[in-house]
Amino acid sequence: MADNKKKVLVIPNIHSAGIELLAARPDIDYQILESQAPEAILNNVADAHAIAVRTALISREVINAAPHLQVVARHGVGYDSVDVPTLTNRNIPLAIAIHSNAVSVAEHAMFMLLSLAKQGVYHHQETRAGGFARLRGTGRGVEIADKELLIIGFGRIGKQVAPRARAFGMEVSVYDPYVDHEIIQRAECRVVTDLNLGVTQADAITVHTPLNDETRGILGENQFARMKPNTFVINTARGGVVDETALVTALRSNAIAGAGVDVFVGEPAPPTSDNPLFSFDNVIVSPHSAGVTQESLKRTAIEMIQNVLNAFDDELDPATVVNPEVLRGHA
Ligand code: NAD
Question: Coil, strand or helix: which one is 160?
């Protein structure tokens, strides 16, 4: 009976549409863990065949405590919270929800860019504080039309940003050494092969790479020193892709015009209220919420659970698997 069923450990919170998919499968038992604490996960993972996880850390210890584990499925596309080498050693695929939130993140990058260009934070605070009349006619905002946006990382999200920026009349350039120039040019964007040169020309820069040893600090002191003082820098990728200390220094010295920051060094712990980034009125911040919209939450939950079901049914799409080399062992 229940012994023959596969168990899915769901680490919260996910949209009910994903849970409904599990409930429709009589061959599957599922447990929704109310806590993301490492001890809670360790105490409940021993009989799991799949882990469907939102943001909790899936460490080596957790993976090793799950002898029946067949798949880990992430809610979203980032996977720095999962110990991939340990999964790969055990031939366990890590599936990500690749179609889930690219549009939401791209819209968020545009929202931050527009907010910076229109001095959204400053005007909002001043207007609410009664500064309406004083501000009339000061013209602090700028247009984004005819300005150049540099997109770093032309994957699922970067590709969604390009047409949105072009629709606002921007010139778009792209730095991504792993994408064919033809793909970039077909998207009506200019290819940048030298990042240090690219940053000197951009009026706005938005980062859409994963966080890894190569991309950590891809925008750092050296790049900020080359930027024009009117440049806006937006990071909706991962904390650390843009060097946070160098960013604060650049803002303090007015080396750049402003920043949009959705992701912080040190997550999943929230940044503390004394984070220096919170003190600027030309910085807009959000709580790692770029990919989280009502539409994307539903889509992501469905896609994550579908990845689990596909793994059980030997139908996992290799394009969704971070470590596809493990799939050969399943053939
Ligand atoms: P993707 O894998 O489709 O694209 C990443 C792109 O980065 C690829 O084209 C790759 O070639 C490029 N890249 C890798 N190394 C590079 C380098 N050194 N220089 C330039 N480009 C490089 O990923 P995606 O779906 O577009 O997501 C990008 C990142 O956004 C994710 O890794 C994740 O960390 C982040 N993300 C954040 C949120 C959020 O809520 N803030 C939501 C989803 C994703």
Answer: helix
